């Protein structure tokens, strides 16, 4: 049996090149992340501003699942929603998580004009017109992810895999940069099974994170509490073929 069939998928030294062996969607025509070339992005005057209306009371827990750290929100009703931009209707915030590197010169998944950031934050929202999250994953307009370059959060208490802590009264909109400028394109989840259901909204302006905060992220462990520490780093997928997709920009 292939190792990844035993343990699920993983990030490893031959990187993610073999995900498609178990997850055929990973070789699709609309995969993420991609390299963004700002000069090739098409300024689109029809792209309206996006708006987030988040309820701090919707934040529930923070979790280290061995692959990332994730904050989970109550999405049983339209409590914290994203609207506007390239989207039709309101999308519910379900979770946010991060991708980061082993050092400051890489870690983001999307690459902008050749620049890799130290980390990339993904705020995952789904379209309630598809009934539930699983249903949304099967639709091309099912999910909207806001991608923000760099970020950090309260992670001291989830140092090892399987650890989860309450994470409440947290307003994720504090994570937004000043500028609302964004690029948008149609893509996929960057983790298996890599469903192609995502409207990406990538914010142009990164947010700042301290070296200490990045060090804290890298101090998380892939392993459980009584196992040797195995640093959770380099949980990013490299850029995938663009295959003719157009990246639109909300700004000139
Ligand atoms: Zn992600």
UniProtKB/TrEMBL annotation:
The keyword Lyase applies. It is found in: Cytoplasm. One of its GO terms (molecular function) is carbonate dehydratase activity. Pfam families: Carb_anhydrase (PF00194). Keywords: Acetylation, Cytoplasm, Glutathionylation, Lyase, Metal-binding, Phosphoprotein, Zinc. Residues 7-251 form the Alpha-carbonic anhydrase domain. Belongs to the alpha-carbonic anhydrase family. GO terms for cellular component: cytosol. Its main location: cytoplasm. SMART domains: Carb_anhydrase (SM01057). It catalyses: hydrogencarbonate + H(+) = CO2 + H2O. It comes from the Eukaryota. It is an enzyme of class 4 (lyase). Its EC number is 4.2.1.1. Reversible hydration of carbon dioxide. Its cofactor is Zn(2+). It comes from Calidris pygmaea (Spoon-billed sandpiper). This is Carbonic anhydrase.
């Amino acid at each position: 049996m292939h190792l990844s069939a035993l343990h699920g998928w993983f990030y490893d030294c031959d990187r993610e090149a073999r995900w498609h062996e178990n997850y055929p969607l990973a070789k699709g025509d609309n995969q993420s992340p991609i390299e963004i070339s700002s000069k090739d992005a098409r300024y689109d005057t029809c792209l309206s501003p996006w708006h987030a209306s988040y309820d701090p009371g919707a934040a529930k827990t923070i979790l280290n699942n061995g692959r990332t750290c994730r904050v989970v929100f109550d999405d049983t009703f339209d409590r914290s929603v994203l609207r506007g931009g390239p989207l039709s209707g309101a999308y519910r915030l379900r979770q946010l998580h991060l991708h980061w590197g082993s050092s400051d010169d890489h870690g983001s998944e999307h690459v902008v004009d050749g620049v890799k950031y130290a980390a990339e934050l993904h705020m995952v929202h789904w379209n309630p017109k598809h009934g539930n999250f699983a249903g949304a994953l099967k639709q091309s307009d099912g999910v909207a992810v806001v991608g923000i370059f760099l970020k950090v959060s309260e992670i001291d208490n989830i140092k090892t895999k399987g650890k989860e802590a309450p994470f409440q009264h947290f307003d994720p909109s504090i994570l937004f940069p000043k500028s609302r400028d964004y690029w948008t394109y149609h893509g996929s989840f960057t983790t298996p099974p890599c469903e192609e259901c995502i409207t990406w909204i990538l914010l142009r302006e990164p947010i700042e994170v301290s070296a200490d905060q990045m060090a804290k992220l890298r101090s998380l462990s892939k392993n459980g509490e009584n196992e040797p520490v195995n640093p959770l780093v380099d949980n990013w997928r490299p850029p995938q073929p663009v295959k003719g997709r157009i990246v639109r920009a909300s700004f000139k």
